[in-house]
Amino acid sequence: MTLAKIVLGCALLLVVMYLTILRNDSSATQQAQSVSTVAVTATPAHGVTLGPVETIPLLTAYQKATASGGYLAVSAAVEQLKIYDKVPPGSTLKLTFPRAGVKQISSTFLAVGEATDPDGRAWYHIRLPIRPNGSTGWVLASDVTPVPLTHDIRIDLSEHRLDLYELGQKKTSYPVAVGKQATQTEAGDYYVTLKAKPVKTRNVYGDVIMMISAFSEALPDWPNGGQEGIHGTFETASIGKDASHGCVRLRNEDILQLTQSVPIGTPVFVRD
User: Fold this and answer.
1) What's residue 105's pLDDT?
2) Mean pLDDT per 10-residue run, the chain (272 residues)?
3) Which of 125, 151, 160, 247 is flagged as catalytic?
4) Does some domain include residue 72?
5) In which element (H, E) is residue 233 found?
6) C-alpha 187: how far from its chain's center?
7) DSSP E strand stretches across 47-175
8) Spatial distance between the Cα atoms of 83 and 194, rounded to a whole number of angstroms
9) 163 and 103 share a domain?
10) 10, 160, 231, 245: which is the annotated catalytic residue?
């Protein structure tokens, strides 16, 4: 073999090696790009390429509000809020409630559930401030504004005690007076419908009154249908006793403190 053939053979070998290196580099670059693209959607493991990660659905306003022990109230966002007996189809209009509210009842309601109708529209299940106690209805979510709540009131009638809870944790307790035997405070699940300060300085409601969605079974002919409330009192000797016509009484300093944490719509759970 001559020297020229040897040189030519080496040159050809170098060219083949160079082309091989270029091809391997190109393949490596393509693989790196492919891995980078997959990493955006899923992490490859042991050479297995995973598909796109499934999108996690967003929580509804009701789910967000109740996830940590809170609640959701909804306020009318239309002039005349239509309230139905159930979610369509086959629903019937139960009542229409004005956005401005009515005497001692605002247009804010406590939501106790949610649903979607066949057309994909969201609905809220709400408590109603009407007789009979415990009445509920359904409103379109698009007709109301959601209002997250963090507190609730729990009243123990036999213990003459009102407890204020925040996100499921008891924060404060107050001694109270409750209804007499003939005009008992109605046990059940309610909510605050209105907060007001009486005009007269010396009155039976003390410094503040919070109306609730409960109605006395013994006094249906009373003003406003015998609606019950939680209010202050100047008759401090009645605290700790069965003394009222169905309302729950607190000392004035206690109701003033309580009302700061209790917006309209706040749940009120009354137990015997």
Assistant:
1) 95
2) 43 42 42 36 52 76 96 98 98 97 95 98 98 97 98 98 98 98 97 94 91 96 91 97 97 97 98 96
3) 247
4) yes
5) strand 227-233
6) 23
7) 71-76, 80-84, 93-98, 108-116, 122-127, 136-140, 144-149, 151-156, 161-166, 169-175
8) 19
9) no
10) 231
46 an active-site residue?
no
8 Å CB contact between 177 and 238 = yes
Domain range for 69 is 61-149
Looking up tokens 């090696």 gives 17
Q: What is the CATH number of the domain that holds 178?
A: 2.40.440.10
In whole angstroms, what is the distance from residue 21 CA to residue 49 CA? Answer: 26
The pTM for the full model equals: 0.80
The two structure tokens encoding residue 173: 């307790």
Give rounded-to-5 percent helix, strand, coil for the chain: 25, 40, 40
CB-based contacts of 196: which residues, under 8 Å, 6+ apart? Answer: 104, 208, 209, 210, 211
Q: What is the predicted pLDDT for the residue at 48?
A: 57
**Tally of residues, the chain:** 272
3-state DSSP call for residue 258?
helix
**How many Cα atoms within 13 Å fall on the side-chain side of residue 205?**
14
What was the pLDDT predicted at 25? 46
Of 149, 180, 196, the domain-final residue: 149
> In the annotation, is 10 catalytic?
no
Please indicate, yes or no, whether residues 95 and 207 belong to a single structural domain of this protein. Answer: no
> What is the amino acid identity at position 180?
K
Query: What Rg value do the Cα atoms of the chain yield, rounded?
Result: 34
